[in-house]
Amino acid sequence: MEGYSTIGGEGGSVLDDPVINKLAKAKGRSPAQVVLAWHVKRGTIPLVKTSRVERLPENINVCDIKLSEKEMASIDALHRGLRIFNPINWSSKLPYFQ
Ligand SMILES: NC(=O)c1ccc[n+]([C@@H]2O[C@H](COP(=O)([O-])OP(=O)(O)OC[C@H]3O[C@@H](n4cnc5c(N)ncnc54)[C@H](OP(=O)(O)O)[C@@H]3O)[C@@H](O)[C@H]2O)c1
Q: Alpha-carbon distance 15 to 79, whole Å?
């Protein structure tokens, strides 16, 4: 399964989250890397986008980040039931989403 907007999209507030930042600090990695590692460990392929070439290695090098079950659960618990994308807003002519 592919993940879109996996670090929150434009201005993604997930990178400011205290839980994410605490984990990032403890592991000596960036908040984006911790979030991407969480996606990978869940089995989602994160399609992260950047316009800054210097961020490419940062966003790619996440597979070595170890997250314990407790750490995974602490990120899981950030679930707020928010829906960022609602396909019905793209077009009223998308029958799959009606
Ligand atoms: N088919 C669909 O329905 C659909 C919907 C949404 C998205 N997508 C796909 O998913 C891709 C990614 O989605 P997205 O662009 O919405 O969201 P995203 O990848 O979660 O976030 C992109 C934003 O994060 C910033 N960023 C990237 N790496 C970072 C890092 N290491 N640290 C801090 N900020 C970082 C980028 O800024 P900088 O550019 O300044 O680095 C940009 O503002 C898109 O390119 C698109 O192909 C598809």
A: 14
Q: How many domains would you assign to the chain?
A: 1
- pLDDT 10s digits, 46-93: 999 999 999 999 999 999 999 999 999 999 999 888 777 777 777 777
Residue 83 resides in a domain: no
Q: pTM (2 decimals)?
A: 0.90
Q: Which residues contact 78 (CB under 8 A, 6 or more apart)?
A: 14, 17, 19, 20
Per the structure, the complete domain to which residue 24 belongs is given by: 2-76
Residue 81 within a domain:
no
Residue nearest to atom 20 of ligand 1 (CA): 5
Task: Check pocket membership of 3 for ligand 1, CB cut-off 6 A.
Answer: no
Nearest CA to ligand 1 atom 43: 10
pLDDT in tens, 44-55: 999 999 999 999
Does 92 fall in a domain? no
